[in-house]
Write a structure and sequence with these properties.
By secondary structure, the protein is mainly β. Helices cover about 5% and strands about 45% of the residues. The chain contains one helix and 17 strands. It has one helix at about 15-25; strands at about 5, 10, 65-70, 75-85, 90-95, 105, 110-120, 130-135, 140, 145-150, 155-165, 170-175, 190-195, 200-210, 225-235, 240-245, 270-280. The strands form three sheets. It has a twelve-stranded antiparallel β-barrel with strand order 3-4-5-7-8-11-12-13-14-15-16-17.
Length: about 280
Amino acid sequence: MTGFASRSGITFSPRSRVGAAACLLLLLPWAGALADETASTGFLVPSRVLVDSPTAGLLPPGTFESRARVFPGGGVEFRVDIGLQDWITVGAGFGGLKVIGDGEPDWNPHPGILMKVRVAEETYTMPAFVMGVDTQGAGYYDTGLARYQFKSRGVYAVLSKNYAVGGDLSIHSGVSRSLEDLDDSDPTLFVGAEKSLGDAWSMVLEYDLATNDDLSDGVYGRGRGYFNAAFRWSLAPDVEVRFVIRDMLRNSEKLDPGLAEVLVDEGWGREFTLSYAESF
């Protein structure tokens, strides 16, 4: 692992970043606040993921959400989640590269699965606590290393707390261990926040230390971690649009040369997600 320098010349090592994130992990979600673990935007169901980082939000029983995500390289991912009980949500996703555009789509070799279980409800003084597993990563799939461009969360635990600050402000922090571990099997820490902006909009920020993706092998992570942002817009109670800006620290290394025709390794990644939720 290697550190990186800020504009002030101060070098931030992976050890210092892990320590800082660990402090956030322990301190951020614990103060007294509004008893609702995710920020509200008028969408029918609570936010269950920021960009890649999960929250403690679950689908209400008898509710499903279908989601289509469009990402660079003509990629599309489809996903359906279902609320079985008030304490468990399950789901599955599938997608691939070059789905939009010319040529043969490059589908992922297998679907991703999700199961999310609430261990503790949020109270005025305590955060909600959820454990789960999610094997659906983001970006293209590297068959050589059996991993996604941005690794799936794998097995994780997350704390979430909501604060009444000019609307809703939700804070999330957790630890995860991806099952895509041929190149790097370390666990990683993540933190994130979502702030409501009126009745229909919210802004999302998340940071993943990516200690499971920081080897100095010139393949993927550079040791900076992944910093992502998004804007959520609830068009209607059952329809939501999400605009995502990915990898703002440019942590990704050069892409697989075999993908040069469909992916350009320049600037921030931009994605678009459309979600529909309904009760049954």
